[in-house]
Amino acid sequence: MAEELKANQRKEWAKLMYLKENITQQEIADRVGVSRVTVNKWAKEWEGLKLNLLQTREERISSTLTQLDELDRSIASKEEGKRFPSAAEADIRRKLTADLEALEQDASIRDIYNVSRGLLDWLRQQDLERAKELSDYFDAYIKEKMKWVK
Prior knowledge:
The chain is an all-alpha fold. It folds into 2 domains: 2-52 and 108-147, no CATH class; 57-104. It has 7 helices and no strands. Helix 1 packs across helix 3 (36-46), helix 2 (25-32) crosses helix 3 (36-46) and helix 6 runs antiparallel to helix 7. The radius of gyration is 20 Å and the shape is elongated.
């Protein structure tokens, strides 16, 4: 299945594992279907990203809503007769609204990954063999979903 993924999809999948799982670069390479040297090269790019991925979708939605509210308050504070957005403010509003719509829609690969990781962490304590088996299914499912990601 790994050979069916494009290079950028393999890299994205490897990045998710690197940032979220406590596994070796060799394990990542084996699961993604690339060399350990390749994963090591990619990992150098990802070192600063671990904290960014800790932000949940709900936190991103809340942050975007706060930004949109601040923009609306700024527009409302203008003097009477000028309480409309400038071209730049209208553009920002459109982009924030589009971001909200995207965040509120289907689960992203990251969301699917986070849920699967949580379940596998729990299951490992209950039944290690079943967790390993289910991990293979999650890997296949995530690979399948990534085929449709641009």
